[in-house]
Amino acid sequence: MTLRTDRERDQAKHYDAFHAARAHSPIVSQLYAQAMGDAYPTEVAPNSSCDWPLLATLTGRLQLRPDQILADIGCGTGGVGLWLARALNVRLTGIDVSATAIRLATERRKNFVADERTHFAIGSLEHTGLPDASAHGLICIDALFNASDRIAALTEFHRILTPGGRAVHTRTQPPGGRTAIKAQARAAGLTVEHIDTRRDEPELWHRVYQLWIVNEDRLRVELGHDQAEGMLAEARRMLPRLATRKALAVTLRRPVRSRSPQSAQ
């Protein structure tokens, strides 16, 4: 994919540096593991809030059959999608804006499934580059906030899902609550099938952020000043917001017979 916007180019540069730094040091994975405890999925090694309870939610909500296709949009280094591909015996297509993430995901796939059952490519939330109706299921984990237009991203999900296919994405509850979530889905031609509350997610992030702050010196030494500074700034910005944070896993479905998103509005 040729990146189409300045925003996508900036995101690619940011996440290339992000993933390159973390690939050269185990410290971030170690801190996530410490924060999650028994809920940490070691093989996945997430750079996100993905824990064992979320993997269970994804497994149940997607309702995929063997050899169907799962799209992981904003896949990062691929751990969540690869774990699901093995667990559900499905084929995987991973999309991310970062070429470094795509390279790392491609290198990891041998630890999960045969190479021919996976494909990773550069793309964005709004422009995945995938064919119409090519995925039976879709996940987007802690990545939807990167969309410049959330409804445009959801419309892209609608386009690439097969009729009847499901998309599960993580997000926080917006102003207007579940009514707003349903309105966004409807504008994209999708229906809301389930909204699962992730009650432990805010406290998880509280532990992660506190560990980042406590380990500031190690982060600066092992990741470099820029990456450490970005993490610390995120931690200090987000910690005060966690008390009112409501984290969700939202399952959307493309209707078996549906109008285009434009006509559904």
Largest sheet, if any? 7 strands, mixed
Mean of residue pLDDT?
Answer: 95
Low-confidence stretches: none
* Portion in strands: 15-25%
Q: Please state the structural category.
A: alpha/beta
Strand order of the largest sheet: 3-2-1-4-5-7-6
Classify the helix fraction into a percent range: 40-55%
How many individual helices? Answer: 11
Kindly provide the radius of gyration, computed on alpha-carbon positions and rounded to a whole number of angstroms: 18 Å
Task: Describe the 3D structure.
The mean pLDDT is 95. This protein has eleven helices and seven strands. 46% of the residues lie in helices and 18% in strands. It has 265 residues and is α/β, with parallel strands linked by helices. The protein has helices at residues 6-23, 27-36, 52-62, 79-88, 99-108, 150-160, 177-187, 201-214, 216-223, 225-238, 261-264, and strands at residues 69-73, 91-96, 118-122, 135-140, 161-172, 191-197, 247-253. The chain has a seven-stranded mixed beta sheet with strand order 3-2-1-4-5-7-6, sandwiched between helices.
Write the layout of secondary structure elements.
Blueprint: H1 6-23, H2 27-36, H3 52-62, E1 69-73, H4 79-88, E2 91-96, H5 99-108, E3 118-122, E4 135-140, H6 150-160, E5 161-172, H7 177-187, E6 191-197, H8 201-214, H9 216-223, H10 225-238, E7 247-253, H11 261-264
Parallel strand pairs: 1-2, 1-4, 2-3, 4-5
Antiparallel strand pairs: 5-7, 6-7
Features:
seven-stranded mixed beta sheet; globular; 11 helices; 265 residues; alpha/beta; 18% strand
